[in-house]
Specification:
eight-stranded mixed β-sheet; elongated
Length: about 325
């Protein structure tokens, strides 16, 4: 079981958000996410307390999503990890307000249906903590977090724990084990290696209420996913290290073309060499080496192009007067 230095809670009070007229859309989107989380990548942006309280939050920190309020059962519905630095955006409380509040981006690793929460009553009984959480960004004490991880791993509407990793079962077995939670459109997914899992990206960038690109590198990735969207199945690969802990995650994986893609927000020599190192590190997990491709914001220097040819790595970079197209160079 993975361990984390810090664990935080995000809270959701359905009475406060979303507005009543949008609740059905939110619940539908949540059900789609719960159905596809085992084979697809889902991300969310969520408010995160105050900046002064959470100045130590880091990419990779653990997140649990807790439903609160009096009109629905209280409990944990999802888990994931933080994928962005703390940033500011307009408050969710009012579209008319100019108030800026801190947010983080999260990539979910598990999402339960809205009627399958891990109850607060169980959490209180087993951890001895108060669980009276008033705002997102509350940090969970380390000893409590360890117990929550154990409870969450054992909790399932179907009574299934994480004893059978998805990357150790066939696509058909996954569907059976998960109670047909994996949609037929997501099957089959390729088996790439013993410690490699591939998940489809199901949200076309800019369309879903559950996606948000933040930094320059992520923006480049989202633009490239858009570029690939009508041409191939797009996903990400997850690499489980022998030492345990949070897995390595690729920026993009072209499922149909078997292309592993690493993005950088600069085209400098250091960035190019660093990305090549990451690609080779990820490629060693694959039973069969995929095509390797570097994604850059502009054309690299001739020296760097020579280097990429020498190590058999493709490159795609932003081009055109409007900077809206991509040029591809193969070794």
């Amino acid at each position: 079981m993975a361990t984390y230095d810090r664990t935080f809670l995000l809270i959701w009070n359905p009475k406060k958000w979303p507005p009543l007229e949008d609740l059905e859309q939110f619940e539908q989107a949540w059900d789609e996410m719960a159905a596809g989380i085992d084979s697809e990548v889902w991300t969310t942006s969520w408010s995160f307390g105050t900046a002064t309280e959470n100045s130590d939050v880091q990419i990779g920190d653990r997140i649990f999503f807790l439903r609160v309020g009096d009109h629905a059962p209280r409990g944990i519905l999802a888990s994931g990890h933080i994928t962005s630095d703390l940033y500011f955006d307009r408050t969710w409380e009012s579209e008319r307000s100019a108030k800026q509040v801190p947010y983080v981006d999260i990539e979910w690793d598990r999402v339960e249906p809205l009627d399958a929460e891990l109850p607060v009553e169980v959490l209180k009984d087993r951890t001895g903590w108060h669980w009276w959480i008033m705002k997102s960004g509350t940090r969970v004490p380390e000893d409590v977090a360890a117990t929550v991880e154990q409870l969450w791993a054992a909790h399932s509407r179907l009574g299934i724990s994480d004893a059978l990793p998805l990357d150790q079962a066939s696509a058909a077995d996954q569907a059976d084990v998960q109670g047909l939670r994996v949609p037929p459109s997501a099957l089959p997914l390729p088996r790439l290696g013993k410690r490699v899992t591939v998940k489809r990206i199901v949200d076309k960038p800019g369309v879903s209420m559950f996606s948000r690109a933040m930094n320059l590198e992520e923006e480049l990735v989202q633009r490239y996913i858009k570029h690939l969207w009508s041409k191939t199945s797009v996903g990400r690969t997850y690499y489980q290290r022998k030492a345990g802990g949070r897995p390595y995650i690729s920026d993009v994986y072209d499922i149909d073309g078997e292309v592993l893609i690493e993005a950088k927000n600069r085209s400098t020599t250091g960035a190019v060499r660093g990305a090549v190192g990451q690609l080779f590190d990820y490629a060693r997990f694959h039973d069969t080496r995929p095509t390797l491709r570097l994604l850059l914001p502009r054309k690299p220097s001739d020296d760097n192009l020579d280097f990429l040819r020498a190590v058999d790595v493709e490159v795609a970079y932003v081009s055109g007067k409007a900077k809206k197209t991509f040029t591809h160079c193969t070794p």
